[in-house]
Amino acid sequence: GVTVDWQAFFAGRGARTVDLPTYAFQHKRYWLDATASGHDDPVGLGQLLVEHPLLSAAVPLPGTGGLVLTGRLAGDAQPWLNDHVVMGTVLFPGTGFAELALQAGQQTDCPVVEELTLHAPLVLPEGTAAALQVVVGAPDAAGRRSVEIHSRPEDRAAGADYSDSWTTHAVGFLSPLRPAPEFDLTQWPPPGAAPLDVTDAYALLADRGYAYGPAFQGLRAAWRDGDEIYAEVALQPGDVAEAADYIVHPALLDAAMHVDLLDGIDGPVLLPFAWTGVAPHAAGAAGLRMWITRLDGAEASVMRMADAEGRPVATVSKLVSRPVDQERLSEAAGQAAEIPLHRVEWQAVTAPPPADDDLRWAVLRSGAPTAAGPTPAASGSGEAPGLGQVPQYADVSALVAAVTDPTAGPAPRTVVFPVPETEGGSTDVPGRARALTHQLLALLQAWLAEDRLDAIRLVVLTRGAVTGGVEGDAIDLAQAPLWGLVRAAAEENPGRFAVLDIDGTDASTHALPAALALGEPESALRLGQVRVPRLARVTGTLPAGASPAAPVWRTDGTVLITGGTGGLGAVLARHLVTEHGVRHLLLTSRRGPDSPGADALRTELTDLGAHTVTLTACDTGDRAALAELLDRIPAQ
Question: What does the pLDDT look like over 470-491, one tens digit per residue?
Fold first, then answer.
């Protein structure tokens, strides 16, 4: 409370004043980020450590000579995965399966992928992750091993149906025989090859359905010599350091095939289907020189890869690509997006008989203190069933006076505030809602202003504010907002507030002391039974062949989007025009047509097919302004 004498404080310490830096202060994150490989301690779990960005552990299979490698795929752990978008879907690239098979071969002395056929796409919707297993079989008489690659959504890892949640994505064989490289790419670019223009390569690929992000935009140059195609590809600078962890980085190998895709720019969308003779010669390249020879049109080719100095990296004896099956891709995307849905369910709980301390509760009759000051405590008036036999206080001031009176006995542990009826009944729901909300807000503020009530819990007693999980329960819309208000107050002041809804039956009135003793932050009494809200997973599936009904929009009506000039509003407007045929849009925001980019948005929406796009400034929280806005919409 006094001024510090800093001269005296620092006397003899050599302290001096210095200027503040003229540059921005350094910002440093203190959150711990998971490593890209997701390693924790496989050895401590009885597994073998595998140091690879996609695989983290291996488990030898006793008695068989087989091996299971495990890992985790997620956009946060491997950010480059988010950039592999085909036909609007984030897919694990086919080159990633080849890399996984090569890693499995490296672990089992079978370095060559003799063959690998892809059976199902691996879709990775935003915010999801997949558990990964690469299963290597026992060697046969020639030393060959089978290999299978499986995944399942990470959220199902703890599910009861453990064995049936896996999807098999690729099946093939690994070979111990590694051929020597029979090509030379030290002379670069190859003599006689004509350069190809790849300036707009990724814009052309995007139009075709390959919406590759930066990590997969690695094509730098290309040349052609008859059926021979040569290309130069490189990883983005931010991904170069990670290249050393791979035999061939999937994004780099994928980019190597992009020049081949450009040749059939009007053809179907192709993805790798079958790899044959994938033989590694070196690992960790951050850039490649590619030599591609077509075998059977656009769908099969031979690939030879060297590093930036021309040293051999890998050979692919044959890669067969096939058109994407849009139906299968949509089905896989739908299955991958099946993030478990949850909802609030009211569950019955058994309330034990309350202890003596739990019976120390009282009733508060009104909210904030009156202007006349505290009102003395009164005996029960019987206005609320079952509450007449406990101490009652007219307002917060009366309660505080009783709590601080040394002759009044122990203070209550819980105080119940029964929400009073308001004038207007069911005919003026908005008016009743406002009156009750303001009254409760005043009470909560007065309660928090009194330090002497810190040890007492206030329970707001509503009637019909929630269903309580009982079929057919009617909701009192005037009281429903009170639950949100109490929730907010309880979040800011843990343990101080709770809310309890009662149905008014005698059984529930008699069960009130037991319900209060439970100490639940939210609960309801229905026919004497205490019910509490709990998060539960939604079960059940749609019938075979059924799909959720899509909303039907009137193309001749006007759609109002509030916040319509902002990022999300603009995205929604585009979606409505292109996907639902909406032709008349009314976009509001605080600044309306003066918002940054507003004119460009209007032009874009018009080009997409909208007939009228009206941008206007309106505070939709202003009832009169909103009414005027709606009145201006043409009747037709």
Answer: 876 778 999 999 999 999 999 9
The band of 38, judged by pLDDT with boundaries at 50, 70 and 90, is: very low
What six digits make up the tokens of 547? Answer: 């799909």
* Lookup result for tokens 């308001």: 422
- Cβ neighbours for 338, distance < 8 A, ≥ 6 positions apart: 153
Q: Can you give the pLDDT at residue 219?
A: 95
Please tell me which of 20-24, 195-199, 481-485, 550-554 the model is most confident about, judged by mean pLDDT: 481-485
Q: Are 135 and 172 in contact (CB under 8 A)?
A: no
> For residues 482 and 87, what is the distance between their CA atoms, to the nearest angstrom?
47
Backbone phi, then psi, for 589, in 5-degree steps? -160, 175
Cis peptide before 60 (omega within 30 of 0): no
Give the DSSP per-residue string, 362-404: EEE-SSSPPTT-----B---SSSTT-TTS-EESSHHHHHHHHT
Token output for 283: 């690992």
Residues 473 and 467 sit within 8 Å (Cβ to Cβ): yes
Residue 384, pLDDT score? 43
Q: What is the largest CA-CA distance in the chain?
A: 107
Which residues are 113's β-sheet partners?
174, 278
By C-alpha distance, which of 300, 305, 296, 252 is closest to 276? Answer: 300
In degrees and rounded to multiples of 5, residue 494 shows phi and psi of: -55, 135
Q: Which of 106, 38, 105, 109 is nearest to 70 (CA)?
A: 38
Confirm if 497 and 489 have CB atoms less than 8 A apart: yes
State phi, psi for 211 to the nearest 5 degrees: -90, 65
Q: Indicate the pairing of strand 167-175 with strand 145-153.
A: antiparallel
- Specify which of 100-104, 186-190, 394-398, 586-590 reaches the highest per-range mean pLDDT: 100-104
**Count of C-beta atoms within a 10 Å radius of residue 560:** 17
* Sequence-ordered list of residues with C-beta below 8 angstroms from that of 52, at least 6 positions apart, any chain: 37, 71, 103, 245, 246
**pLDDT at 159 (0 to 100):** 46
Query: Within a 13 Å sphere around the CA of 345, how many CA atoms are in the beta-carbon half?
Result: 10
Sign of the dihedral through C-alpha 534, 483, 476, 623: negative
3-state secondary structure 174-228: EECCCCCCCCCCCCCCCCCCEEECCCCHHHHHHHHCECCCHHHCCEEEEEEECCE
- The per-residue DSSP string of 515-582 comes to HHHH--SEEEEETTEEEEEEEEE----PPTT--PPPP---TTSEEEEETTTSHHHHHHHHHHHHHH--
User: Phi and psi for 548 in degrees, rounded to 5?
Assistant: -60, 140
CB 242 within 8 A of CB 84: no
Q: Do the beta carbons of residue 208 and residue 308 sit within 8 Å?
A: no
Amino acid in the structure at residue 269: V
Q: How far apart are CA 384 and CA 433, in angstroms?
A: 20
Q: Could you tell me the pTM of the whole model?
A: 0.54
Closest CA to 550 of 575, 582, 580, 570: 580
In angstroms, the Cα distances linking 596 to 13, 279, 564, 611 are: 55, 54, 12, 22
What distance in Å separates the CA atoms of residue 328 and residue 312, rounded to the nearest whole number? Answer: 37
Q: Which amino acid type is present at position 57?
A: A
